[in-house]
Write a structure and sequence with these properties.
heterodimer; A: Aldehyde Oxidoreductase, domain 3; Aldehyde Oxidoreductase, domain 4; seven-stranded mixed beta sheet; 19 helices; B: Ubiquitin-like (UB roll); DNA polymerase, domain 1; 5 helices; about 15% strand
Chain lengths: ~775, ~160
């Protein structure tokens, strides 16, 4: 029987009413009295030396308040990178400066050169056209392998080459790895590309900066997943402002998917310009601007090799990846191809020897950083594609090959630095086989063939590492931040509760799910608990929402703070009931003395805390507690996915006929929300596999710069999805036993789709080993007719 | 500047606009009806869909002056008179048809236009109709389900909520 409230209930989302009635408060809905608007003049060439920026004509245009160029930011900090990766020789990564407005050179299409602040956006845009600009064009650095060669054109003249770092994880002894491969009974090799994507949350980025000259207080409204992180980075590293004089507000945010984690130049600009102009300054990104200024995702070129023994056991794995970082280091870009990618190369398998090699490259493209999954999709795609190819080469069932090599004993120390605490990969695969009706596939294939279509089944397993932590370990690995989170539970006198959290909700439904936990712990109605988030002036210092961390990390802090509240409330209840604190029990919102019928209600205790007349003298008045929580380990959600496709052999058109996901997320607070997260991830993964591609030409021109050219998945590109999360092995080290579900769908689905397409083509008698994503009709047709 | 007058959600409104002012800007910036969202600049995403004389229109693709004298409906006018959600809005909440909420106003307005013309659409018809409305959060599953439910169809056999 499903629960109707508390942990495990599919409570309807309370945030929906405002969104469904047009009453949401997104950043672009915020207009501050007297605000001016900024328009950024961006480079339309990929690489060049700025020889002239004459703003004098623009400054005289109607409505213009001030025109800024790179010169205005000399002496101001640049955009920082939050993770220093150490290369395999022990040297720190190369870290070039990233000015707010270009200084000397432009390095990608979209690099901001000047900023015009005017009374209206139209006036700012008109004036930007009057800026006299000369750029001496340089060769664009686009191909990663060519960029790594000695003598290549440099993206950053002051660096020794275009390689940010040459990194390695796992087995460092090349001879040992070579020996494993030399002695293997079979080696499967695959070269593949993980296509560059644009996250494209439906709400473009917006920033509104405000400055009060009388008090020297700043406010920045911004589309962010982590307002405290933005405030810290902007104050400490960019503008040199005291944190207590800066308030950062991220109100309703229309999707993030990683791309709103990062501190962007436009945020720092609006804050800086609000003081310089003594007026609020607002920037609203257009979608076209978003394509060339939001951090992109993925863009890896990899070679993966899998060694198997004569019994088909995996004995070795080696990968060599070129990872594109773009022209500058975005906030967490350096961590993605390394600690969020290399560490996942063991996947669900007990491969004893693994070596991961990554060269991270600067190119004349938009910076690349975390996008839903961030490194884990790139790892999973390589691994699950090569495993499927090995099964095809060996003529064995791809599910059986996976099962044979699954990790089955936990905890499990991988050769790539992680310790999986728990999981049941065979159990999850059992759920998938049932939910996807795999025994019925042969009949479905026959039916498709009778209609002249090829049908394929693609299987994929994934593991991901969520809730990145603990802080002391990630600090050793180069993180320049802690990765804990925080919550303050403020109980009001009449018993209702406000919970201020460091996590940020931009679609995940925290305002509904988090109260389910607190209400369940106390035994009160969910409606008595409200979540406050997104405003540094209201919430404790927390790290925000990304990496599927909110419930596992911030939720744990909330549980700990609630436990402190309950402990204190029990002291007050013991006093009121004239009993020993040890005998007090809390159930259904009533404190009672064990073994008696004496009780006092939650509301009476909370009122007593604030009207402490009959009160224990040794206890402080009030009922408000804060907790910070630093996890002991990552959490490890895992799953098995099945995709069925039909391929039209005449056109190469692929249609997704069925998609089934079996996930192990540990314990689940709101199953409806979890299902929705998986749906959305699968939708994005299908987009990557079949449709989406951020394309540049050899001169660095961005070819896919709008929704006209970048193929977002639409409603008729995808099916209804089957989602099963009844396989549950609770996380062993956080109080809720939760693992995180936000990225799973995007990690697990691309290889399932591509494996299904290849299965379909091979079933038609065409031996095709590989097609790069997006698996477009032209690529499928070429593979079939090549 | 030119004066433009229209009826929005049953009220007569007017304002002075430039020739280039879009209907979406007039609604958002002049009338403070910020429920109509702008998610792109190429008339692809559909977050800005409103009703103009009963037809679903992308308001970012129409000049305010073109709507002079028109009867315009926006998301702010969709709820019942007592403020409760209408049938489509309620179905979106019941079936978790929204996450971040940014595309939602356009989805609800498009769904209303679809159901007016086609009161019991099939799954394929719903998906086809929504081609002009992008959502990045839901993978469309629960949006399609919500619209079918709002049309009175039994959606209980469709996989998970």
């Amino acid at each position: 029987m499903p629960k109707d409230s508390g942990i495990g209930a599919s409570s309807k989302r309370r945030e929906d009413v405002r969104f469904l009635t047009g009453a949401g408060n997104y950043t672009d809905d915020i207009n501050v009295y007297g605000q001016a608007h900024v328009y950024f003049l961006r480079s339309d060439i990929a690489h060049g030396r700025i020889t002239k920026v004459d703003t004098s004509a623009a400054e005289g245009m109607p409505g213009v308040v001030k025109v800024f160029t790179g010169k205005d930011f000399e002496g101001v900090g640049g955009m920082p990178c939050g993770w220093e990766v150490t290369d395999k020789h022990g040297a720190p990564m190369q870290e070039p400066p990233h000015p707010i407005l270009a200084q000397g050179k432009v390095r990608h299409v979209g690099d901001p050169i000047a900023a015009v602040v005017a009374d209206s956006l139209e006036q700012a845009r008109d004036a930007a056209e009057a800026i006299d600009l000369d750029i001496e064009e340089l060769p664009a650095v686009m191909n990663m392998k060519a960029a790594a060669q000695d003598g290549a054109t440099l993206v950053h003249d002051d660096l020794k080459n275009n390689i940010c770092y040459d990194w390695q994880l796992g087995e460092t002894d090349d001879a040992k790895v070579n020996e494993v491969f030399a002695n293997a009974a079979h080696v499967t090799t695959l070269d593949l590309v993980n296509n560059r994507l644009v996250a494209n949350p439906m709400e473009p980025r917006v920033a509104v900066g405000e400055y009060a000259r009388a008090t020297e207080d700043y406010t920045l409204y911004t589309t962010s997943q982590n307002p405290h992180v933005i405030r810290l980075l902007m104050c400490a590293f960019v503008l040199g402002l005291p944190e207590h004089k800066v308030r950062v507000v991220a109100p309703d945010v229309g999707g993030g998917f990683g791309t709103k984690i990062f501190h962007y130049a436009e945020e720092a600009f609006c804050t800086f310009a609000a003081k310089a102009c003594n007026r609020p300054v607002k920037w609203t990104s257009s979608r076209s601007e978003a394509f060339m200024s939001d951090a992109h995702g993925r863009d890896h070129v990899s070679k993966i090799e899998l060694a198997l023994d004569a019994d088909n056991n995996f004995v070795g794995l080696r990968t060599n990846t070129y990872a594109n970082l773009g022209a500058y280091l975005s906030t967490f870009s350096s961590s993605v191809p390394t600690w969020l990618h290399g560490t996942l190369m063991a996947g669900n398998y007990k491969t004893p020897v693994i070596q991961v090699n990554v060269k991270a490259m600067f190119t004349n493209t938009v910076p690349v950083d975390a996008y839903r999954g961030a490194g884990r999709p790139e790892a999973t795609y390589q691994l699950e594609r090569v495993v499927d190819k090995a099964a095809r080469e060996l003529g064995v069932d791809p599910i059986a090959l996976r099962r044979q090599n699954f990790v089955t004993q936990f905890p499990y120390d991988t050769p790539v630095a992680l310790t999986y605490d728990t999981g049941d990969y065979n159990g999850t695969m059992d759920k998938l086989e049932a939910a996807a009706d795999l025994t019925g596939f042969a009949a479905r294939r026959s039916a498709s063939e009778a209609n002249g279509k090829l049908r394929g089944l693609g299987i994929n397993c994934y593991i991901e590492a969520c809730g990145i932590a603990p802080s002391n370990i990630v600090g050793m690995l180069g993180a320049r931040a802690g990765l804990y989170d925080a919550a303050t539970v403020r109980v009001n006198a009449t018993g209702s509760i406000s919970v201020m959290v460091g996590a940020h909700s931009h679609g995940q439904g925290h305002e509904t799910a988090f109260p389910q936990v607190v209400a369940d712990m106390i035994g009160i109605d969910e409606s008595m608990v409200e979540i406050v988030h997104g405003d540094t002036s209201k919430i404790p210092f927390g790290m925000g929402t990304y990496g599927s961390r909110s419930l596992a990390v911030c939720g744990s802090a909330m549980v700990k703070a609630t436990e402190k509240v309950i402990d204190k409330a029990k002291k007050i209840a013991a006093h009121l009931l004239e009993a020993s604190e040890a005998d007090i029990e809390l159930k259904d919102g009533q404190f009672s003395v064990a073994g008696t019928d004496k009780s006092v209600a939650w509301g009476d205790v909370t009122l007593t805390a604030y009207v402490p007349h009959n009160y224990p003298l040794e206890v402080e008045p009030g009922l408000e507690e804060t907790a910070f929580y630093d996890p002991a380990n990552f959490t490890f959600p895992a799953g098995a996915y099945a995709c069925e496709v039909e391929v039209d052999p005449e056109t190469g058109q692929v249609s997704i006929e069925a998609f089934t996901a079996a996930d192990d997320f540990g314990n689940i607070v709101n199953p409806m929300i979890v299902d929705g997260q998986v749906h959305g991830g699968i939708g994005q993964g299908i987009g990557q596999a079949l449709l989406e591609n951020c394309a540049y030409d050899e001169n660095g021109q961005l070819l896919s710069a709008s929704f006209m050219d970048y193929a977002m998945p639409r409603a008729d590109d995808v099916p209804f999805y089957g989602v099963d999360h009844s396989s549950q092995t609770p996380c062993t080290h956080n109080p809720l036993g939760v693992k995180g579900c936000g990225e799973a769908g995007a990690i697990g689905s691309p290889p399932a789709v591509v494996n299904a397409v290849l299965d379909a083509l091979n079933s038609g008698g065409k031996a095709v080993d590989h097609i790069d994503m997006p698996v477009s009709p032209s690529r499928v047709w070429a593979a079939m007719n090549g | 500047m030119t004066q433009v007058s229209m009826t929005v959600n049953g009220k007569s409104v007017s304002g002075d606009v430039e020739g280039r002012t879009l209907l979406s800007s007039f609604l958002r910036d002049h009338l403070s009806l910020t429920g109509t969202h702008v998610g792109c600049d190429t008339a692809q995403c559909g977050a800005c869909v409103v009703h103009v004389d009963g037809e679903a229109v992308k308001s970012c693709n129409m000049l305010a002056l073109e709507a002079d004298g028109a009867d315009v409906g926006t998301i702010e006018g969709q709820a019942n008179a007592d403020g409760s959600l209408n049938v489509i809005q309620q179905a979106f909440q019941d079936h978790h048809g929204l996450q971040c909420g940014f595309c939602t106003p356009g989805m609800v307005m498009s769904a209303a236009a679809l159901l007016k013309d086609n009161p019991r659409p099939t799954e394929a018809e719903v998906r086809k109709y929504l081609e002009g409305n992008l959502c990045r959060c839901t993978g469309y599953h629960n949006i399609v389900k919500a619209i079918m439910a709002a049309s009175g169809q039994d959606v209980s056999s469709i996989a998970a909520e």
